[in-house]
């Protein structure tokens, strides 16, 4: 176990400051886990350079400490909980490697993608390798219930990817389809790592659900803001081209909200913006509509729900930091 801190908060510190010691060597430890005797280890370590936002492990550590305080009046971080935080970043990164293969993307996080450097086949194997190392790691220290919870994540990522490949003709079904895909591809990882942190602390079912619902709502809000930023941020800020989702044929929340004002988006959605001029036209119609405002409003609703559930925990610095995270999710610019 890692030593806890005696803390009587005077003011809410920045979330990253609270877990600075826990996160200090996280990427270094991930790189150690990926050690092997062949070329694959160098490819696998490529994104674990400490330059990512590390939002998922940050939330996992904060949730672990918050629940440990709630249950045991002790904000110690269990070694198994830190492993789960590492696993969150590793699974997320493996999914990015696979996404870039599917999307034939040349860049990721502002630099050349793994597949553009090493080729599609090696990138697929690299993503698989990171996942296999991840689950070998957590199986060493986590109880069966925690391993089962973490096992839901790759299943959901795969299911979400399949959902993303399809479109719904019915407009009402289309938004539900989008929200389900958003949970599976983005929010599931955060939700289940939060739940796993609670399991490892000895939480009962109701407290596990608090952790899960916090992660689910923050995760959905995070993706909604990400979809909004695809329409309003520059490529230099985001590290990927603007309107990237439209170019991939994806109708995200801003487009789906805009359909109500501009029905001419419907045929574009069904043909996945493949005809010449579709991407530019859709981009312009979204900006003319209130789709961006509605997307932000929905993200805010999910953040409010996250605050509601996490507020049932005993007050602590980490609990307050989890509330602060919702504001950072809503107001991020990249």
UniProtKB/TrEMBL annotation:
CDD domains linked to this entry: Trans_IPPS_HT
Q: Where does the UniProt entry say this protein principally localizes?
A: mitochondrion
Q: Which organism is it from?
A: Scylla paramamosain
> What reaction is this protein's catalytic activity?
6 isopentenyl diphosphate + (2E,6E)-farnesyl diphosphate = all-trans-nonaprenyl diphosphate + 6 diphosphate; 7 isopentenyl diphosphate + (2E,6E)-farnesyl diphosphate = all-trans-decaprenyl diphosphate + 7 diphosphate
**Single GO term (MF):** metal ion binding
Cellular compartments per GO CC: heterotetrameric polyprenyl diphosphate synthase complex
Query: How is this protein named in the record?
Result: All trans-polyprenyl-diphosphate synthase PDSS1
List, separated by semicolons, the cofactors it needs: Mg(2+)
């Amino acid at each position: 176990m890692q030593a806890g801190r005696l803390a009587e908060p005077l003011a809410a510190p920045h979330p990253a400051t609270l877990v600075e010691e826990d996160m200090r060597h996280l990427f270094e430890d991930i790189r150690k886990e990926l050690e092997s005797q062949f070329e694959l280890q160098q490819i696998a370590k490529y994104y674990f350079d400490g330059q990512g936002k590390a939002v998922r492990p940050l939330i996992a550590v904060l949730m672990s400490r918050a629940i440990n305080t709630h249950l045991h009046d002790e904000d110690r971080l269990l070694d198994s909980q830190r492993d789960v935080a590492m696993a969150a970043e590793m699974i997320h990164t493996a999914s990015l490697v696979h996404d870039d293969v599917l999307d034939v993307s040349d860049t990721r996080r502002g630099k050349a993608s793994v597949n553009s450097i090493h080729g599609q086949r090696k990138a697929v194997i690299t993503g698989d390798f990171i996942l296999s190392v991840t689950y070998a790691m957590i199986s060493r220290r986590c109880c069966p219930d925690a391993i089962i919870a973490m096992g839901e994540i790759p299943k959901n990522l795969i299911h979400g990817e399949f959902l993303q490949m399809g479109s719904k003709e019915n407009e009402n079904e289309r938004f539900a389809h989008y929200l389900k895909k958003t949970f599976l591809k983005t929010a599931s990882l955060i939700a289940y790592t939060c739940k796993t942190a609670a399991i490892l602390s000895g939480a009962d079912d109701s407290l596990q659900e608090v952790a899960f619902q916090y992660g689910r709502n923050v995760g959905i809000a995070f993706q909604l803001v990400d979809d909004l930023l695809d329409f309003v941020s520059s490529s230099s800020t985001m590290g990927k081209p603007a309107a990237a989702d439209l170019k991939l044929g994806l109708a995200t929340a801003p487009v789906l909200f805009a359909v109500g004002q501009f029905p001419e988006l419907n045929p574009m959605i069904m043909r996945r913006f493949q005809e010449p001029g579709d991407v530019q036209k859709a981009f312009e119609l979204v900006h003319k509509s209130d789709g961006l405002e509605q997307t932000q409003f929905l993200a805010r609703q999910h953040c409010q729900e996250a605050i509601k559930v996490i507020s049932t925990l005993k007050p602590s610095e980490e609990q307050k930091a989890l509330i602060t995270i919702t504001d950072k999710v809503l107001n991020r610019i990249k």
